[in-house]
Design goal:
Helices cover 40% and strands 19% of the residues. The radius of gyration is 30 Å and the shape is elongated. The strands form 4 sheets. Strands 1, 2, 6, 7, 8, 11, 12, 13, 14 and 15 form a 10-stranded mixed β-sheet that branches. Strands 5-4-16 form a 3-stranded antiparallel β-sheet, with no helix packed on it. It is α+β, with helices and mostly antiparallel strands and 482 residues long. It is built from 15 helices and 17 strands. It folds into 3 domains: 3-289, no CATH class; 299-411, no CATH class; 420-479, Arc Repressor Mutant, subunit A (Orthogonal Bundle), CATH 1.10.10. The structure holds adenosine-5'-diphosphate (ADP), magnesium ion (MG) and zinc ion. Residues 6-10, 157-160, 199-201, 210-211, 213 line the site of adenosine-5'-diphosphate (ADP).
């Protein structure tokens, strides 16, 4: 029997507010443990939460960008459970009345477009963090860091519309890009700004009813998401093939071993005893506010992708890669403004720049080779001052040192040799040193021509103008021939 997998994701995105959801504490990541706390987020008795307006605005932005319905009134709810990193004994979340309902996200996998429906998007506060391990002053103890406690999160819940790990990954990528464009979330998965729980089930291909699902908690990279799902789907299919039944449970992904393990079963599942948060009045969002947010929305990824194709004449693939990150798209456009050959710029951004960004773990604005410098480099190349090969070397040098391309070219004497007399002398020397090859060429082994071009480029450290080398070499081989 053939099986198909069904996946729905719950994504937690940390909102880019400066202060927490219900108090004035900073949300800065670099703070020392417990520095960003106050009586409110520590859950002291007698304190009251005050809702952060900016967090609500960011939720509205997101809701509008996914065509969701913004609730004109909604309420917060208490989600009760005991955990050492949760000093209040509950999280303030939303339950029956989320701020956003519905909406969708379009993804593309293998050239196939697909619409993934969203069920809900709601606001909630994060919990703290328990720290254990050898690096601590006393490794036998668990330490608590409550800086995260009360940090605003958006939980974005998809319908079970995804059908493969690839689709799940594409969805998360699309969502990350969108949240970054909206400046709702920085998308930093290593720092935990974007986390994902994956719900997955399998069913016989063609079946209508959904199978029993498991939920894999806290996946913090695209690779882990994909690998965890691949493993879990195989595992569930194997259980069914053996005649067993899948148990509804929460599982954890062990990245080292590449497997998922049960964390808690349905029986052990938390009973959160949700009830309306009595310390907060219902939230009212009026039409005027929604309209203001709508008017402030930036160009969204899909629109920008389309514009890159029409305005710059780029292939769809280039547009997709360049607009995957708002910062990369900005970098591209800033370069094109100074060097208006979009496809050339696109090739360099998708090739050399992405490679360098990856190598140095930089975001585009952190690149020492700025759009201004890339444009300058491309001008040097375009006007024949340097060869393509040298341009790549200059790119690396500029990236590593932050010096201007023009300066690097001059200081290193990399200017292309386009002086025919100078080149001719070099070629004559190369021919003399390769007498055997020259003879073979003249005897009919024409493919040796490429070798001689290579030797000439080598003799000039790549600085020779390639067209000129070709011309001169051909002439010299003919005229001095037998
Ligand atoms: P809960 O309230 O327990 O978190 P929800 O019904 O809100 O459950 O669903 C949570 C997530 O699980 C959603 O993303 C949804 O798409 C997904 N989901 C629900 N049922 C299934 C299923 N049978 N297979 C895969 N995913 C599912
Ligand atoms: Mg859930
Ligand atoms: Zn606080």
């Amino acid at each position: 029997m053939e099986y198909e997998s069904v996946i729905g994701l719950e994504v937690h995105a940390q909102l880019l507010t400066r202060s927490k959801l219900f108090c004035g504490c900073s949300t800065a990541f670099e703070a020392d443990p417990n520095d960003n706390t106050c009586p409110v987020c520590l859950g002291m008795p007698g304190v009251l939460p005050v809702l952060n307006r900016q967090a609500v605005e960011l939720a509205i932005r997101t809701g509008l960008a996914v065509q969701g319905t913004i609730a004109t009134t909604c309420r917060f709810a208490r989600k009760n459970y005991f955990y050492p990193d949760l000093p209040k004994g509950y999280q303030i979340s939303q339950y029956e009345e989320p701020i956003i309902q519905g909406g969708w996200l379009d993804i593309e996998v293998n050239g196939q477009r697909k619409r993934v429906r969203l069920i809900r998007i709601h606001l909630e506060e994060d919990a703290g963090k328990s720290i254990h391990g050898e690096h601590l002053a006393d490794p036998t103890k668990s330490y608590i860091d409550l800086n995260r406690c009360g940090i605003p999160l958006l939980e974005i819940v998809s319908a079970p519309d995804l059908r493969s790990p690839e689709e799940a990954k594409a969805y998360l990528q699309q969502l990350k890009t969108l949240l970054e464009y909206l400046e709702v979330c920085d998308g930093n998965m290593e720092e935990g700004s974007l986390r994902c729980d994956a719900n997955v089930s399998v069913r016989p291909k063609g079946a209508q009813r959904l199978g029993t699902r498991t939920e894999i908690k806290n996946l913090n990279s695209f690779r882990f998401l994909q690998r965890a799902l691949e493993y879990e789907i195989e595992r569930q299919i194997e259980v069914l093939r053996q005649g067993g039944t899948v148990v509804q449970e929460t599982r954890l992904f062990d990245a080292q071993r590449g497997i998922t393990l049960p964390m808690r079963t349905k029986e052990e599942a938390h009973d959160y005893r949700y009830f309306p948060e009595p310390d907060l009045v219902p939230l009212r969002v009026d039409e005027a506010w929604i309209a203001r947010v709508q008017a402030s929305l930036p160009e969204l990824p899909a629109a920008r992708r389309q514009r890159f194709v029409t305005q710059y004449g780029l292939p769809a693939y280039d547009a997709e890669v360049l607009t995957a990150s708002r910062a990369l798209a900005d970098y591209f456009e800033a370069t094109v403004q100074r060097f208006p050959q979009p496809k050339v710029v696109s090739n360099w951004v998708m090739g050399e720049l992405l490679r360098a960004l990856h190598r140095f773990q930089h975001t585009p604005p952190q690149a020492p080779l700025t759009p201004e410098y890339l444009a300058e480099l491309l001008q040097l190349l375009d006007s024949g001052v340097i060869s393509g090969k040298i341009a790549k070397a200059v790119f690396d040098e500029v990236y590593e040192t932050g010096r201007r391309p023009r300066e690097v070219v001059e200081a290193k004497g990399l200017v292309q040799i386009s002086d025919a007399a100078a080149l001719e002398a070099v070629i004559r020397r190369v021919l003399a040193e390769n007498a055997a090859q020259v003879e073979a060429y003249r005897g009919g082994k024409k493919q040796i021509f490429g070798y001689l071009v290579g030797q000439t480029m080598k003799a000039t450290q790549g600085k020779a103008n390639p067209q000129l080398v070709n011309q001169l070499l051909r002439r010299l081989l003919e005229e001095d021939g037998p």
